[in-house]
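Long-time lurker, first post. I've been practising inverse folding by hand and with some scripts of my own, and I keep getting stuck on stretches where the structure tokens seem ambiguous. Below is the full token string for one chain I'm working on. Before anyone asks, I'm not after the true native sequence, just a reasonable design that respects the backbone. If someone could post their per-position residues I'd love to compare against what I wrote down in my notebook.
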């Protein structure tokens, strides 16, 4: 039978791929799962599914805590980049001690087989310095990859900027062996390993290997808040009104990607 996402997580927690550093003391969990996104564009549709949610401030981050079924879930948004992701991950672990930490969001496809809206699970995290962290053992990665459960398993590269040109995607795919790219995952995986917290990387593919992201769209995707996104969109339209159609298509694509990601997360968080 196909290995569904909840079964993948159950196996991950049972087998406990050892992401811990040699000396670590793991405190008792306070919440079922914690999720960290970079932007509200990515997290919004999942946050809408939480019941009785409240906002919590910790350090310079805002987190949301609520119920999914009878499971207590914490959702954070770090902003783009590894530094923000690292600090937000540690803040969530210190404050909530999750049983499972999920790094979630959008990713760009590097492998030509990945298409927009595909659900992607990282078996290995890599960064642009050539460092890597194994997230799934070889047997589990192979079993998940060979399943027909509607998601793809592969290596995820964390880069310090959006990769928007098809030729650059092809070059990174060939030089790193990675299948997808994001801007935060490696940092979150590293903090979870240091703290001994079980970790899953779950992404929805936003753009395929042959899809180009124009400069003005990159600027829009980077914005952390709703007002900032509106400002970036209005600025792009002011400079070139003909961009209206593509900006609207981008908004619709982001909503669909966020919906697909939320549905995948709900399967995990409500049952694991």
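-- Answer (accepted) --
I ran through it position by position. Result:
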């Amino acid at each position: 039978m196909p290995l569904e996402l909840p079964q993948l997580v159950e196996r991950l927690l049972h087998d406990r791929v050892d992401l811990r550093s040699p000396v670590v003391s793991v405190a008792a969990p306070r919440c079922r799962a914690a999720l960290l996104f970079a932007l509200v564009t990515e997290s919004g549709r999942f946050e809408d599914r939480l019941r009785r949610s409240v906002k919590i401030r910790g350090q310079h981050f805002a987190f949301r805590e609520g119920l999914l079924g009878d499971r207590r879930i914490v959702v954070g948004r770090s902003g783009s980049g590894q530094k923000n992701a690292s600090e937000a991950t540690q803040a969530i672990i210190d404050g909530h001690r999750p049983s499972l930490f999920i790094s979630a969001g959008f990713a760009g496809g590097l492998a030509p087989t990945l298409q927009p809206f595909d659900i992607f699970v990282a078996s290995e995290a890599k960064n642009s310095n050539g460092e890597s962290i194994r997230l799934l053992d070889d047997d589990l990665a192979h079993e998940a990859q060979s399943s027909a459960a509607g998601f793809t398993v592969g290596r995820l590269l964390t880069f310090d900027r959006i990769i928007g040109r098809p030729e650059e995607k092809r070059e990174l795919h060939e030089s790193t062996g990675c299948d997808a790219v994001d801007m935060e995952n490696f940092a979150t995986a590293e903090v979870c390993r240091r703290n001994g917290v079980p970790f899953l990387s779950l992404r929805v593919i936003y753009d395929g290997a042959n899809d180009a992201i124009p400069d003005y769209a990159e600027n829009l995707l980077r914005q952390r808040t709703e007002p900032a996104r509106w400002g970036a969109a209005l600025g792009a339209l002011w400079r070139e009104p003909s961009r209206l159609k593509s900006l609207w298509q981008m908004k619709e694509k982001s909503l669909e990607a966020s919906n697909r990601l939320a549905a995948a997360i709900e399967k995990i968080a409500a049952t694991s």
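A couple of notes from the structure itself: Residues 19-26 have pLDDT under 50 and may be disordered. The chain is about 40% helix and 25% strand. Happy to go over any region you disagree with.
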